[in-house]
Description:
Distance between the termini: 27 Å
Helix content: 55-70%
Number of domains: 2
Radius of gyration: 23 Å
Strand order of the largest sheet: 1-2
Oligomer: single chain
Mean pLDDT: 87
Amino acid sequence: MRASRHSHAQALLEALAQPGCPICRLGARAVARALESLAYEQVTDPAVQARFAAALGLCASHGRQLLNRTSSGQGVAILYRAVIAAALRRLEQVSAEPAGGLLSLVRGRRADGPAPGLAALSPDAPCPACQVEADAEQRAAQVLLEQLSHPDARSAYERSPGLCLPHLRLALTLARPRQRPAAALLLAHAASILRGLDQELAEYVRKHDYRFQHEPYGAERDAPARALTRFVGERGEC
């Protein structure tokens, strides 16, 4: 096993030992590292600025995460100056169109089609952080499928909370024919987790009945949040 594959496998095993979906955790960790590097190390790189501008910056979720993680606004200022320059160039091109112009943009729509500003202000590339997250999640899913053939990884997975449904779908999509036993394990584990979660939700609902409100909550206290997270995945900072 090459060093990079070994490090990915080790990171997966560590994530399996922690709460929540391991692929969500590894994706969030990759985004956190990428945002730190973007704001402090790559911010003056012309190629990085060009890609950032093509995407018109970050999506709302990762943009807020960048602000929360960055102690200085200088990096954000430099990056978004590049974004503003790109946006202004696009708006100037729209205003220069003989059949369009700013008046058409303000009115919202040309007679023969959508508002000219719609295409001009649509990103030409995905959010850079979303791309990092997607790449990291796909890599983690592939490593998981490979590692489940090893007894230690299989045992660690069976003890873990397993995958959220979005990442279960991702892993099943990526599974090759030779990885069908791994896919079967993922499905069986998911069914077991969902059955247990359903029992906890039933207990949570029961204790909301006025007849049983005197009973203290147990492990089911956070079952509604865990149920929602199971179906939508865990997003945010790691």
